[in-house]
Write a structure and sequence with these properties.
This is 3D-(3,5/4)-trihydroxycyclohexane-1,2-dione hydrolase. This protein is of the alpha/beta class. It has 24 helices and 23 strands. The chain folds into three domains: 205 residues, 3-Layer(aba) Sandwich (Rossmann fold); 159 residues, Rossmann fold (3-Layer(aba) Sandwich); 190 residues, Thiamin diphosphate (ThDP)-binding fold, Pyr/PP domains (Rossmann fold). The strands form five sheets. Strands 5-4-6-7-9-8 form a six-stranded parallel sheet, with helices on both faces.
Length: 622
């Protein structure tokens, strides 16, 4: 093939990386690369070609060496959350099990609507050497493989079968990742032979391009419908979700609430939309929420839901609200805006709140606002007592209170699956906006340390003087801890609080609450473990290069946390907490879980009846 003028001859892999390095985003009038780099583990499926291409752009797209592909994906999620979805990281994995390990991370990004680019090895397009190492042969469809498993958990999926295809595929993938409505992970399968095939690409394809996040204006008629409904409200309430922060609409949310004197509650993803001290912040809502937020949700007649997908932990499996309450859902995604017979306002949260503020002539009844504030005052008193050291055996809440009192306002707080998301959501008193990441969209154990590492990489690009602090249970630590080592190697300091309750204690609690006997959750309740013993988390963390110590109570935890803050190195602090008596007992809404309708256990039967007793409050909708 003769090279034509205005083209450049590159391999497929080189073209992918060169194009990615020339894509920029405009944030606060500054231009920076939209891709902050990547996480990679090389294998035969990506080292020879994609690895060669990445080696030439180490400054433009730094590659962080991962320890586990799943945790790489979690780190990429933590990174983009810190950047409010304005920037993302790629993950590259080899063909076969390396790529398969990314499936859970893709699910997390999909559930949380997070941009992440997956550049994964694939089997040979020619099929000449088949079956190759790590290939999953499909007996009826030779085109079908492990990479096809990503189709349900990605927003964009492609397999490159010819070098020219990247000219269309890469812009489409990026457009998906930057679209507020369709945002999510993008997957590009790169067959091992195609990665090395060459093509004469147009030079124009690699010119610098600056992208901006699209802001969709709301429909005028939908704004009018929302205004009409709000004007009739006797007991209005705002639910502020994670989309408020992604839209950078915190100021507009606050202005709207203050202008019309409307109480605000926060979802798990929306924690840190407002400071804890704001008089209209009535607390977190739902299953892991507050008595105050749930009290007003039960009575509200018009609910303005902004930037939330109304997950079951927010809605109490749709029992948290009056069945006749009118929901107005402001969301960039049409799929979310119309849930449960809501009045939809499909549009950007910032623009939609501005339009509502300009159009509405209304003030909420003071008696309603006073009721909400009184409920919040009662909840604040409960939390103050709940986090107090010495009020009961060591607890998650006490540890949260210690850190809350000693951390800096802009420090990043990370938590994920298990009991800690509920405890952080209920007990954390927000010191500054946008500082809390509780991963409960996919509720992934193992996100805590990996996600914090990714957040720390982003944080050092924004506020390097601040700390990233992650709360981690012993179960999650055991599931995925290797990014302690990653953080030490990359000099991205973390403060890791390992709170050890002897197993999967929150699921043991659910097991007991549904009438079941403790079984296979706490180490002491596993019949296949003859002699249970705890892990020496200090020795383990120290073996990965971190500074580490164990404390026996919250007072010692405070002293250790000060040492961790003063250190320039990843610091792990372990403390035992009680698996039975340490839980936050207030603030919970009903949650639908499957309980046995037939059982020989009287306790299980009674628990089933008690659980089902709340079903009559469940809102019917689509």
């Amino acid at each position: 093939m003769t090279k034509t003028e205005g083209t450049i001859r590159l391999t497929t892999a080189q073209a992918v990386i060169r194009w990615l390095a020339n894509q920029y985003i405009e944030i606060d009038d500054q231009q920076m690369r939209v891709c902050g780099g990547g996480f990679g583990i090389f294998g035969h499926g990506n080292v020879t070609c994609l690895g060669e291409a990445l080696n030439s752009v180490q400054e433009e797209l730094p590659l962080y060496r991962g320890q586990n592909e799943q945790s790489m994906g979690f780190a990429a999620a933590g990174y983009t959350k810190q950047w409010f979805r304005q920037r993302f990281m790629f993950c590259t994995a080899s063909a076969g099990p390396g790529t398969a390990n990314l499936l859970t991370a893709a699910g997390l990004a999909h559930a949380n609507r997070l941009p992440m680019l997956l550049l994964c090895g694939d089997t040979f397009m020619t099929r000449l050497p088949d079956p190759v190492l790590q290939q999953m042969e499909n007996f009826y469809d030779p085109t079908f493989g492990v990479n096809d498993a990503f189709k349900p958990v990605t927003r964009y999926w492609d397999r490159i079968t010819h070098p020219a295809q990247v000219i269309q595929s890469l812009p489409n993938a990026l457009a998906t990742m930057l679209d507020p409505a369709d945002c999510g992970p993008a997957f590009i399968g790169l067959p091992q032979d195609v990665q090395g095939w060459a093509y004469d690409y147009p030079e124009k394809f690699f010119e610098k391009k600056v992208h901006r996040i699209r802001r969709q204006s709301p429909d005028v008629a939908e704004i009018a419908d929302a205004v009409a409904a709000l004007k009739e409200a006797a007991r209005p309430m705002i639910i502020a979700g994670g989309g408020v922060q992604y839209s950078r609409a915190v100021e507009e949310l606050t202005t709207f609430a203050e202008t019309y004197n409307i109480p605000v509650v926060e979802t798990i993803a929306g924690r840190a939309n407002m400071l804890a001290t704001h008089p209209l912040n009535i607390g977190p809502i739902g299953v892991t929420g507050s008595d105050s937020a749930n009290a007003i949700a039960e009575k509200a007649d018009v609910i303005l839901a902004v930037g939330t997908r109304l997950q079951d932990f927010t809605t109490g499996s749709w029992t948290a609200f009056d069945k006749d309450a009118q929901i107005i859902s402001v969301n960039a995604a049409r799929h979310d805006a119309g849930k449960h017979m809501s009045l939809p306002v499909v549009g950007d949260a910032k623009l939609s709140l501005t339009a509502l503020t300009e159009a509405l002539d209304y003030t909420a009844p003071q008696s309603w606002v006073d009721f909400a504030k009184t409920e919040r005052s009662k909840w604040d008193a409960y939390v103050a007592e709940n986090v107090k050291p010495g009020n009961r055996p060591n607890s998650y809440a006490q540890a949260i209170g210690v850190v809350n009192d000693l951390c800096a306002p802009r420090d990043r707080i990370v938590a994920a699956a298990g009991g800690l998301p509920a405890e952080v959501t209920a007990n954390w008193r927000t010191l500054d906006v946008g500082t809390v990441d509780v991963e409960f969209g996919f509720s992934c154990m193992g996100y805590e340390i990996a996600g914090a590492w990714g957040a720390r990489i982003a944080q050092t690009q924004q506020e390097p003087e601040q700390d990233t602090i992650t709360f981690c249970g012993d179960g999650s630590y055991m599931m995925l801890n290797s990014d302690i080592y990653s953080s030490v190697l990359s000099r991205k300091k973390l403060i890791v609080l390992v709170l050890d309750n002897g197993g999967f204690a929150v699921i043991n609690k659910l097991q007991n609450n549904t009438g079941n006997e403790s079984f296979n959750n706490l180490l002491e309740d596993c019949p296949t473990i003859p002699e249970p013993f705890g892990v020496d988390f200090v020795a383990h963390a120290a073996s990965m290069g971190a500074q580490a110590e164990k404390v026996t109570n919250p007072s010692e935890l405070g002293d250790a946390f000060k040492r961790a803050k003063a250190s320039d190195k990843t610091y792990v602090i372990a403390m035992d907490v009680d698996p039975y008596e340490g839980w936050t007992t207030e603030g919970h809404a009903w949650w639908e879980v499957g309980t046995p309708t037939v059982t020989e256990s009287e306790r299980v039967r009674k628990a089933h009846e008690d659980w089902e007793a709340s079903r009559n409050k469940q809102r019917r909708g689509v």
